[in-house]
Amino acid sequence: MKSPFRIIVIILATFPIATAQVASHQPTDVKGMTNAPTRSASAAPAMTSVEVTGKPVARVNGVELTDRDLLREMFQLFPYARVHNGFPKSQEPEIRRGALSMIEFEELVYQEAERRKMVIPAARVNQAVAEYRKRFQSEEDFDQYLKAEMGGSMDRLRKQVRRSLLIDAMLKQEVNNRSGVTLEEARAFYDKNPKLFSHGESFAFQTISIMPAADASSQQKESARKKAEEILKQAKATKSYQEFGLLAEKVSEDDYRVNMGDHKLVARERLPDEVVRRALAMRPGQVSDLIQAGSFYFCFRLNQHVPPGRVRFAEVRPKLMTDLKKLKSEDLRKKLDAKLRVNAKVEEL
């Protein structure tokens, strides 16, 4: 049985989770920036193109952050922009706002790491540069990137990598190392929020349907009824999920035939009363008698009946601990951001 985490997901969705992708020296492919491999994508909505000029978009304690920095972070938030050379017009302001906040946060974290005199060994920087260099398909691609975004300077690239490593180290110290969730904490959350882990009654079933056209003649409808009765005999003779499913693929006329007639778990309140009444009188594996709905005929195989109840803690524990860790991590990030901004001068240009 699948655990219902929909409410937990909603809780997480209220927090703008910003991943620790702070190595903002990725190749990009919007005007003014170098090319990188792209993934294919389906048709996109109206897009807003972005052109990099190098102009400042913010100052953090006097340090300028440019539209190049901003665009890198926007790509982190919306990678498909590389495919479409831009961002969806409807989402661009929100993506820009989130990216701007993030690069300001990263700069504040970096400055705090420098203030604390945190150290990244030169060997670690060189290792990270070498690892990053391997991500390019050729030396020519790397040289193109280095020239376009680092002014051809390896020293500048090493400084950028060191900056990213310092941010990572600072976040590990202030966020990652403090965001662990114990088994006792997860159990306490589970016990205090019983509604989050409760579920209603549901049924899992497969269907086979015969569906004559809405304007079918009386003769055609009678023919459909006889066809449905004959198919019902075949359905009753099936002995397994697989056998019923193969029959559904062959003869059923509803959209679920492509999935072996399988509707998976459906909440009781979403089902017709007649289906619920019959399902309650059946055992898993049984096939119903023929049911008429208007001019349609169908039968179903009951696969599972899940009574209302509460998901056991053992079932939700791994996912719950992961979700609570994400919540705790984001809360620590937000508090760190607020703390660093108290005495900082952040100007958005």
How does this structure look, described?
This protein is of the alpha+beta class and 349 residues long. The protein folds into two domains: 21-174, Triger factor/SurA peptide-binding fold; 201-307, Chitinase A, domain 3, CATH 3.10.50. The chain is 49% helix and 14% strand. The protein contains twelve helices and eleven strands. The chain has helices at 6-13, 67-77, 81-84, 92-115, 122-133, 139-150, 154-174, 183-192, 218-237, 241-251, 273-280, 313-342, and strands at 47-48, 56-60, 63-66, 87-88, 198-199, 202-210, 262-267, 291-293, 296-306, 309-310, 346-348. Strands 7-6-9-8 form a four-stranded antiparallel β-sheet, sandwiched between helices. The relative contact order is 0.14. Mean pLDDT is 85; it is low at 1-44.
Compact description:
This protein is an alpha+beta fold and 349 residues long. 49% of the residues lie in helices and 14% in strands.
Largest sheet: 4 strands, antiparallel
CATH architecture of the largest domain: Orthogonal Bundle
Helix fraction, binned, reads 40-55%
Query: What is the CATH homologous superfamily assignment of the largest domain?
Result: Porin chaperone SurA, peptide-binding domain
Enumerate how many helices there are, as a single number.
12
Radius of gyration: 29 Å
Separation of termini? 53 Å
Structural class, by secondary structure, is: alpha+beta
**Total number of strands:** 11
CATH class of the largest domain: Mainly Alpha
H/E element order: HEEEHHEHHHHHEEHHEHEEEHE
Number of domain modules: 2
Mean pLDDT: 85
Question: CATH topology of the largest domain, which one?
Answer: Triger factor/SurA peptide-binding fold
Overall, the morphology is elongated
